[in-house]
Amino acid sequence: MARELYTARLQRKECISDSAQCFHFEFVIDELESFPFNSGQFVSAVATDPNGKLQTRAYSIASAANSNRFELCVNRVEGGFFSNHLADLTDLPVGGTVQIHGPHGYFTLREPITDSILISTGTGIAPMRGFAQWLFPENGPDRSNGKDIWMVYGTRHETEIYYHEEFETLAARKPNFHYLPTLSRAGASWPGLRGYVQDHVARIVEERAAHLGLSLPVPPVDPAIPAAELHFDIHAYICGLNNMVAGVRERLSGYGWHRKQIIFERYD
User: Fold this and answer.
1) Helical (H) or strand (E) element with 211
2) Span 46-73, mean pLDDT?
3) The pLDDT of residue 89 is above 80
């Protein structure tokens, strides 16, 4: 069955990191009154390359649902067709259009909302931004239910932290949102966390367990309990390159976490 294509009009484009050549895009689907999706889902963009071949690329939506709009966060890839097609003003100027289908995917927040650790690197921040906007809307009810939400975001250099001021502002506005950017190649002037996300996730898990009086690793889940009846008091959501995803999953499994507590999406 053919997927229905929509025409997305580019309303705004901004380079948010010169060093990483990362672009933020805001699109409107004029033919629809609303474009509903769950935060964390993705759209697939479709275009024909210079050789006449139809190309499709999947991009996580970097926003919460908002009328007939959606946003993307894309790194330009050297030699790559689609990222350059989107980034180049000659190919896609403001007002230009791209064909998309979706939304797709199951990388979504599990409900009821629990304490959650949002873990990402690079453009893996895109779905996390969608989660944060849905949980803590500027105009609307807080959906976090007072649960602690940690956002652990890793990259190499300070110039490659995307949406940094936005998340700092959110952390100042919401005391249960904890924003933890960490740099693996931090300069001497960087005042924040250093190292890899795995280590900071481990610290969160250990400190939370101590605060709740829990011992790690946690006891294994009774295998007789059907998967649909499993309930957890915390989840981890991971998005990034495979090595990071695998490293975090291994750390959490070592604490006795059940695989259904660990929701992940890889993009390499």
Assistant:
1) helix 197-212
2) 96
3) no
- pLDDT bin (cut points 50, 70, 90) of residue 259 is very high
Helix (H) or strand (E) holding 182: strand 177-183
**What's the CATH code of the domain at 127?**
3.40.50.80
Q: Where are the beta strands (DSSP E) in 18-148?
A: 22-28, 42-48, 54-60, 69-75, 97-104, 115-121
CATH of residue 49's domain is 2.40.30.10
Q: Which of 93, 140, 143, 89 is nearest to 113 (CA)?
A: 143
Q: Is residue 74 part of a domain?
A: yes
Same domain, 138 and 91: no
CA distance 244 to 41: 20
Strand ranges for 89-148 from DSSP E: 97-104, 115-121
Model confidence pLDDT, tens digit, residues 149-172? 999 999 999 999 999 999 999 999
Residues above pLDDT 70, as percent of the chain: 99
Q: Are residues 228 and 130 in the same domain?
A: yes
* DSSP codes, 190-210: --SEES-HHHHHHHHHHHHHH
End-to-end CA distance of the chain: 27
Instruction: Provide φ and ψ at 247, rounded to 5°.
Output: -65, -40
Instruction: Reply yes or no: is the peptide bond before residue 103 cis, omega within 30 of 0.
Output: yes
Answer whether 0.85 is exceeded by the pTM. Answer: yes
